Amino acid sequence: MSSDWWHWVASTDSLTQRLIVAARGEFNVRLLVQRLDRPRRDEALALKIPFNQWIWRREVALCAGNQPWVVARSVAPLSSLQGQRLGQLGERSLGSWLFRQPDLERGPIEITRQPAPFHSAEPGPWGRRSLFRHGRFRILVQEFFLARMADELKLPRR
Fold first, then answer.
1. Residue 75 to residue 15: CA distance in whole angstroms
2. pLDDT over threshold 90, residue 130
3. Which of 61, 68, 118, 138 has minimal CB crowding within 10 Å?
4. Mind listing the pLDDT tens digit for each residue in 35-94?
5. What residues pair up with 63 in beta bridges, in sequence order?
């Protein structure tokens, strides 16, 4: 992985804030899906929950202007959502809420070269995911960088 990509993929701060700067303030969130669902097998394993347990699922495109640069899928067990009001985020980024939590803990970042398994945009070179904790609250955040971001920021495709 190039050092330019490492700067994006391995960062532990807010991806939303990094995108706002890179997009020169022309950042927006496009809500794709938000509903109750069942986790994918890999998500259930990461969250340490049964495969048939209900989860809250949110998928968004993080855009520069109107062009998606990143697609993200976040899943959380319903049992950990009590009192969090995440259903009211709408077209605001989860990161804008998450990184304001004073006791936020982020697990290790897992990196992949697989395309987003939930979005059909031209795949990009990298994806990552982390498990976040805030008190009883747990959420698995999965982010996939798209080819358009690589092209716009003149990053290598691989």
1. 17
2. yes
3. 118
4. 999 999 999 999 999 999 999 999 999 999 889 999 999 999 988 877 677 777 778 888
5. 28, 68
Only one residue has tokens 């890999």, namely 42
Gap between the Cα atoms of 98 and 139, Å rounded: 10
3-152 has CATH 3.40.1410.10 classification = yes
* C-alpha to C-alpha distance for 50 and 133, rounded to whole angstroms: 19
Angle at 139 between CA 12 and CA 147, to 5 degrees: 55
135: phi > 0 → left, psi -120 to 50 → alpha, else beta; which?
A: left
Which residues are 75's β-sheet partners? 57, 140
Q: 124, 118, 127: which is closest to 147 by C-alpha?
A: 124
Where are the domains positioned within the chain?
A: 3-152
pTM metric for this prediction = 0.91
